[in-house]
Amino acid sequence: MPTDEDELRDLMKAGLDGDAAAHRSLLERLSRHLRAYYKSRLSRIGRSASEAEDLVQEALIAIHTRRHTYDPAEPFTPWAYAIARYKLIDHLRRTKAARADVPLEAAGEITAHEDHVDTESAIDLARLMARLPAKMRNAIQHVKLDGLSVAEAARRSGMSESAVKVSVHRGLKALSAVIGREKAS
Questions:
Q1: What is the C-alpha separation between 49 and 39, in angstroms, rounded?
Q2: Which of 77, 79, 122, 169 has fewest C-beta within 10 Å?
Q3: Looking at the whole model, is its pTM more than 0.85?
Q4: What is the set of domains in the chain, with CATH numbers?
Q5: Which DSSP helix (H) or strand (E) runs through 77?
Q6: End-to-end CA distance of the chain
Q7: CB–CB of 132/175 below 8 Å?
Q8: How many Cα atoms are found within 13 Å in the side-chain-facing hemisphere of 89?
Q9: DSSP H/E element including 38
Q10: Residue 82's closest CA among 118, 29, 22, 37?
């Protein structure tokens, strides 16, 4: 018997393959899951159910617009709930939810963990990328970081698809060499 995860993943895969009915069904089913998720988290900190509805819509939009980043070989629900969790964190930051209002046992679920690691990684990545020629840097940014297809990256950058592939390959090779040299130092 297929699990909810299997069904949702199958709907996502079908939606990625262009099946609009499957995509619509996925979003409808997800809305029920997300509504329950947000209501339970928000009720623990004394927030209203109307906020949950807003968050459901934000999460569904984010899932829809970022669907190209989903890897069909991976489980679907952790990917979707990661988006949902970050939408909740963003919402609480925007609405200035005080940590004092959060019960201690729920604090770990709604606060970001190790933000400094992400910040440091972003700084390191920017420093490394700055060492590359613009052509390579843009190709890597479009394909590897923004998740665009090679064809989309080529259109956006005015390069041929082959040139984008070569730039990505050479750029990653150059980054690898820089990292190797830094580790050796």
A1: 6
A2: 122
A3: no
A4: 4-110 (1.10.1740.10), 115-184 (1.10.10.10)
A5: helix 76-94
A6: 55
A7: yes
A8: 14
A9: helix 20-44
A10: 37
